[in-house]
Specification:
The chain is an alpha+beta fold. It contains 20 helices and 31 strands. Strands 15, 19, 20, 22, 27, 28, 29 and 31 form an 8-stranded antiparallel beta sheet that branches.
Length: 691
């Protein structure tokens, strides 16, 4: 059942999805009609807009975060486990998906239903929300990952997708989920696009509108196989937006997906290009068909003009800034590991990544893991070597050259992006005290070796902190450094500087390849709010959920009507100490948190009423694990210290431990600052340290 090239095909499918989304996103709005696209861009054959880096929208956020039901639920998804991901990973009203209002946006409507206790799948049902809301396009655009984790088993992929889509959709929305996921699954076993679509059709009820529109497209294609524009005219006449309510109904866009698959004839580029040129929901449709044809044809079929700008990285918009920094090859490994587990097959050794660590192995063809090459010297250029690794060609380099640098970005800033539609937020993926280990291979042709210096750059000052240089004369060398302790800063580059040691008469020539990058070990995050910047409507490096947050006078102010929370840190932090100073100005609830796994799960400690408490929050239900009377005062500053070690949670104020509790429910998570009632609180001297 699991194909031999499974990992590579998952990688190609997820890349294909993101290529389609990036191609279609700039022309998604109603301004870009079919006619305007035709008249302005003509026959699209490449990206219509360049981005510094592309901030993913809902079409990527949904497939990634809703699939975390596998991790959180421990296996095959249900409507309930996926509903919990909706509530847990979204910051209400910000990012993840379109917050267009109750009764307008399907996802916003379903989210509010869930929040008010309406369970899934009732939350997305026609009975609850009406037919128009339930049959918008979200039924099929958030389900690509369910096809990727069920290779060669369309019926199982469709079952997963229907369960996941039912949180927000019903009727034809569920049919769309089944069809797209089933096609993705079928694409693992054939290179015939008609065979793929045949498998998808088996999953549709005979009388469904979804089946009828796909049939209409396939019938027209059989009679007019070379004229996709005539097929679009058929869709507009018989299946257009004027026939269906809501902002983005699934049926017209189902027709576009079928049209692109048929007329693309299995060619990846032509398929996503046609999907975009049809207009309507350009990024959604191109993303769905990009996954299908990406899986079917494999990584070799993705043209460099589309693949290279992606650079194997995606930035997301969930509540966890750590999870929002995603490198595609590592994510493909994670999905593939779940594919084996769900098929009840052993996961190959080394396939599943280690949670909470950076490990780039470059095993997938031409993978970059988001690494960036920079040089102003003509003697140094990025090189796509046949061997695995991120390559640099050194062509007659000498010690007179400044060389080049290769680096990974463990943190992003607003200046790195052109837009902020879905408001990404970031926590670092690398911390002071951690070990950076890089393996570099140098295929030397002539001349002396290369001097390789590891470094880390601090984002606010731009200062580079170098490690110990290593002379690489040929063969392989391991370069290591410990990330230095920095005063309230954040690392936004980690990599190596490379320069030739050769004299001009015998210049260096060869290919240097980074074949492994690991960042691991215990880390420390110290935040200086006097340095912190407000970007993407968040105070770095926190993600805010509810309330009003601002940094002023060297402190972070949290202002809450009923709840305000800010989270940061490695999502997989296990044993840790969180220390900070806290000044409650008004209100009854002033808390810090550890092992916080989103908006719905975490341990919290602090002041509540006239007490100190340790509480656990699980999907809206709060359980008090320990409590004691404590006469704290407004306007007074206290030193909090919360510790999570093994199954023991402890809490101290001003150096004196007041509470201790044992609970093994939550094993890891982020750190948090929170108010769970109306009030205002000031926080400073924030330090999060692994134990």
């Amino acid at each position: 059942m699991i194909p031999g090239d499974y990992l590579s095909k998952v990688y190609a499918g997820f890349l294909g999805m993101n290529i389609g989304i990036r191609l279609g996103a700039p022309v998604e709005s109603g301004f870009w009609t079919y006619e305007r696209l035709r008249d302005v861009y003509g026959d699209i054959r490449g990206y219509v807009r360049d981005y510094k880096h592309f901030a993913a929208d809902d079409d990527t956020n949904g497939p990634v975060f809703f699939a975390r039901a596998l991790e959180d639920g421990g296996g095959e998804p249900t409507a309930q486990t996926v509903a919990e991901t909706w509530l847990n990973y979204a910051r209400e009203g910000v990012g993840l998906y379109w917050w267009g209002g109750f009764g307008v946006s399907t996802e916003h409507t379903a989210y509010l239903n869930l929040k008010r206790g309406i369970p899934a799948p009732q939350s997305g049902s026609i009975a609850q929300n009406g037919k128009t809301i339930a049959e918008q396009i979200g039924g099929q655009i958030f389900i690509d990952t369910w096809g990727l984790v069920a290779p060669n088993d369309p019926a199982r992929a469709a079952r997963y997708a229907r369960a996941a889509a039912s949180v927000g959709h019903d009727g034809e929305g569920l049919n769309g989920a089944a069809f797209i996921a089933g096609c993705i699954s079928a694409a693992f076993g054939t290179d015939d696009i008609n065979a793929v679509m045949d498998e998808g059709m088996k999953l549709l009820p005979s009388g469904s509108l979804y089946r009828k529109v796909v049939d209409a497209v396939r019938t027209h294609h059989a009679a007019h196989p070379a004229d996709w524009r005539s097929c679009y005219e058929l869709l507009r006449r018989d299946w257009g937006y004027d026939r269906y309510g809501g902002g983005c109904h699934i049926i017209p866009n189902a027709g576009v997906c079928a049209l692109a698959l048929c007329y693309g004839r299995g060619d990846f580029a032509r398929t996503v290009e046609i999907a975009v040129m049809c207009g309507w929901d350009t990024d959604c449709n191109a993303g769905n068909v990009g996954t299908i044809v990406g899986v079917m044809n494999g990584i070799q079929a993705l043209p460099a003009r589309y693949r290279d700008p992606i650079n194997d990285e995606v930035v997301l918009s969930g509540i966890s800034g750590y999870l929002n920094i995603l490198d595609i090859p590592t994510y493909a490994r994670s999905l593939a590991a779940w594919g084996y587990r769900l098929a009840n097959e052993p996961v190959p050794d080394g396939l599943a990544p280690v949670d909470g660590e950076i490990d780039f192995d470059f095993r997938l063809p031409a993978s970059t893991h988001g690494m960036i090459f920079e040089s102003n010297e003509p003697q140094y250029s990025k090189h796509a070597a046949a061997s695995p690794g991120f390559g640099v060609l050194v062509d007659r380099g000498t010690r007179a050259n400044r060389g080049c640098k290769l680096y990974y970005k463990p943190f992003w800033r607003r200046e790195d992006f052109d837009d902020e539609r879905y408001m990404p937020v970031f926590s670092p993926t690398a911390y002071a005290g951690q070990t950076v280990e890089m393996r570099l291979e140098y295929d030397r042709i002539q001349g002396d070796g290369l001097l390789v210096t590891p470094y880390a750059r601090e984002t606010y000052s731009g200062r580079e902190y170098p490690g110990e240089s290593v002379l690489v004369s040929g063969g392989a060398e391991t370069i290591t450094m410990t990330l230095p302790q920095i005063d309230g800063g954040l690392f936004d580059e980690i990599g190596v500087r490379i320069v030739s040691t050769a004299q001009p008469k015998l210049a260096s020539c060869g290919v240097a390849r980074l074949v492994r990058l690991r960042i691991f070990g215990k880390g420390r995050l110290a935040v200086d709010f006097a340095k912190a910047k407000r970007e993407f409507a968040s105070v770095l490096p926190f993600a805010h959920n509810h309330g009003a947050w601002r940094a002023e006078d060297g402190r972070l102010q949290g202002l809450a009507l009923d709840h305000a929370e800010s989270v940061t840190g490695n999502y997989y932090t296990k044993d840790a100490l969180l220390a900070c100073r806290l000044t409650p100005e008004n209100g009854t609830s002033h808390l810090v948190g550890l092992r916080v796994q989103g908006a719905q799960r975490g341990y919290y400690a602090g002041f509540s009423g006239g007490e100190v408490v340790i509480r656990m929050r699980m999907y809206g239900k709060e359980t008090t694990l320990a409590r004691a009377a404590y006469a704290w005062e407004h306007g007074k500053t206290y030193a909090f210290a919360m510790r999570a070690q093994g199954e023991t949670i402890s809490f101290a104020v001003d150096g004196r431990e007041l509470l201790r509790a044992d609970d093994g429910t939550l094993a890891y998570g982020m750190a948090a600052l929170a108010l769970y009632d109306m009030g205002r609180c000031l926080f400073d001297n924030f330090i999060l340290e692994d134990l």
